[in-house]
Amino acid sequence: MTAQSQRRSRHVAAPVGKHRGLDAPETFGRGFHALGELAIAGVQVSARATDLATGRVLLSIDDHVVMPTASVGTVLLLIEVAAKLRDADFGAYPILDRTNDDAAGSSGIWQHLQAPSLPAADLAALVGAGNDNLATNVLIRAVGLAAVRTRAESLGLTRSSLLDRVRDHRGPDDAPQLSVGSAKELTWLLTALARGEIVDADVSARVLGWLSLGTDLSLVASAFGLNPLSHREPDHGLLLVNKTGTDAGVRSEVGVLRGPRAGVAYAVSMYFSDSSLPARLAVVDGFRAVGLDLLEYVH
C-alpha cells in the first residue's frame, strides 16, 4: 500500500456523525432536510462534508454510493497533467493541437476561438475554469485515459474514475457516463489536494491553481456570495476552490471552502429525472441549502 493510500484509509475511516457537527448540534440540519426531501421525491442523492483540519464528518448521506459526476472527474485528468508536466518525455511546455475527432459541443470556450493549438497548461486552465470539453478531450488524448485511471488507482481511489472522453452522443459501446465517483472518496481527494498530499505539494498546488479559476458557482457555491469571475483571493474571509459537473439529469460539485472560523471539504452529487424546470430548480435549491450550511460553519 502506498503512503497516499494509507493516508486515504485513515481519513475515510473517521467516525461518521451523520449530519450533525459535534460542536454545533444544529449544523447542517438545513441541508440534510433539503436533500432528504429530494430523496423522497425520487432524486438519487449523495453528499459528504468534513472539517478540513480535523477530518470530522459534518454531513454524510449515502456517501459511499457511486454516482455520475460528469466533469467532476476531470480533476483526475488535471492531476495526471500536472504530474506529466514534470516528465521529460512529456515536456514542461508541450503545445497540443486540436483535431476534428476532439470536438465536443456544450461547455467550453476553445471551440469558439481561432487558435488551433495551445500549451497543455493553458488547456488545463480552460478545463479548471469552465469545464472546457474540447480542451478535456485534447488533454485525454495527450496523456492517455489509461494513465489517468492508473493514477487514480495509485491514490487508492476505487469508486471514482474518469471513464471516457467527452462525447456529444453516447452509443451502446461507449461508457454511459463521463465520470463517476463517491462523495467519500471525492471529499478525501479535495482534502488531500488542499493539504498538498496528491503526488506532492507542487502537483497539488498546480491543480488547485487551475481549479481556483472555476466560474461555475451555480450549485453549492451559489450560497457563498462570491464573484464567479474572480474569487482567487479571500473575499469577506472566504476562499473557494471547486469543480462542478453538469449533464442531463446529473449535477455534481466538489470543493474546499475556507473561512474565518474553519475550513471544509465537500462533495454533493444528484441524479434525477430532468423532466421539468421545477424539478431541476428543486435540485439546484438542494445544493444551495448545503452551501448555506457550509457557509454558516466556516464563517
Automatic annotation (TrEMBL):
UniProt KW keywords: Hydrolase
Residue intervals of the Beta-lactamase class A catalytic domain: 49-271
Keyword Heme: no
InterPro entries: Beta-lactam/transpept-like, Beta-lactam_cat, Beta-lactam_class-A
GO biological process: beta-lactam antibiotic catabolic process; response to antibiotic
Gene Ontology molecular function: any one: beta-lactamase activity
UniProt region (Disordered), positions on chain: 1-20
Parts of the chain that traverse the membrane: none
A Pfam family recorded for this sequence: Beta-lactamase2
Protein name: Serine hydrolase
